[in-house]
Amino acid sequence: MQLEGRTCLITGASKGIGRALAAVLLEDGARVVISARGAERLEGARAALASQGDVAAVAGDVGDDQDAARMVAEATERFGSLDLLVNNAAILPEPAPVASISAETWNDVLRVNVTGTANLIRHALPVMAAQGSGVIANISSTWGRSAAAHQGPYCASKFAVEALTTSLAGEVPNGIVTFAVNPGIIATDMLARAFGSDVSMYTSPEELAPAWRRLLGSVDASWNGRSVDLG
Ligand SMILES: NC(=O)c1ccc[n+]([C@@H]2O[C@H](COP(=O)([O-])OP(=O)(O)OC[C@H]3O[C@@H](n4cnc5c(N)ncnc54)[C@H](OP(=O)(O)O)[C@@H]3O)[C@@H](O)[C@H]2O)c1
User: Fold this and answer.
1) Is residue 227 part of a domain?
2) In a domain, 125, yes or no
3) Which of 99, 100, 140, 193 is the residue whose CA sits 20 to 30 A from 178?
4) How many domains are there within the chain?
């Protein structure tokens, strides 16, 4: 897809992979809306990105349906379209055995990682359908294809992201494409939490820029329903 002049909404973009992707999209001429829950860090990201192009920020929780609706509404009102939705926001709880994980933790992880993705899709799809075009990229994980011990809720949530992507691909009208993306092992706060150690030797989110350009530049109708690796 061409990025110049397109409107892109990235959830979970106040730091990590989402924020670095926002910088790539802006450099390539897209108009970008970033979102996250923490308003202060989100505003810091917006201010830092503003020198690179047309960027707006909408604070909110993807797991809250009204917040999800607001993210889509503010993106379309501000920029007049919605061409790329990147469902990137996710949480990862402390590693623990399935048998010891509370119902509250299960609910939190599934609410953000799965229901949050579905919420954004529910609000974005009518906009894209009216335009006759749009791309929905759902950020998955290696743990969306094979599960690991002590990561039950996160793995289950990413398997669900893969499944909802496949379901959605069979439902979208012509002109709309959805796929799942595994970003690989990337040095972010989430990885540090997963590994419980220093992760600075891994690929940084900024180093993904060429891979994002290759990937987004290749997207066409044949991508609908695919599960791809970013690297
Ligand atoms: N890093 C890796 O190695 C790796 C590997 C495979 C897949 N992934 C996936 O890549 C994506 C980005 O991960 P990351 O490593 O960049 O994570 P990160 O550094 O922890 O950043 C997560 C972002 O999501 C936001 N967020 C969290 N919960 C949210 C909610 N309920 N509503 C809106 N925003 C929310 C966070 O801000 P607030 O907390 O302020 O909301 C933050 O901006 C995730 O889907 C993750 O599962 C990462």
Assistant:
1) no
2) yes
3) 193
4) 1
Cα(197)–Cα(106) distance, integer angstroms: 24
User: From the CB of 14, is ligand 1 less than 6 Å away?
Assistant: yes
Domain that holds residue 188: 7-212
Q: Give the CATH number, domain containing residue 83.
A: 3.40.50.720
Ranges of residues in the chain with a pLDDT under 70 are: none
- Mind listing the pLDDT tens digit for each residue in 194-227? 888 999 999 999 999 999 999 999 999 999 999 9
> Is ligand 1 within 6 A of the CB of residue 183?
yes
Q: Looking at the domain assignment, is residue 129 inside a domain?
A: yes
What pLDDT is attached to residue 151? 96
Q: Whose CA is nearest to atom 19 of ligand 1?
A: 16
pTM of model > 0.85:
yes
User: Is residue 89 within 6 Å of ligand 1 at its C-beta?
Assistant: yes
**pLDDT value of residue 231:** 80
Strand order in the sheet with 176-182: 55-59, 31-36, 7-11, 84-87, 134-139, 176-182, 227-229
Residue type, 137: A
Identity (one letter) of the amino acid at 98?
A: V
Which residue out of 9, 17, 61 has the highest number of ligand 1 atoms within 8 Å of its CB and is therefore the one to mutate?
17
Residue 230 within a domain: no
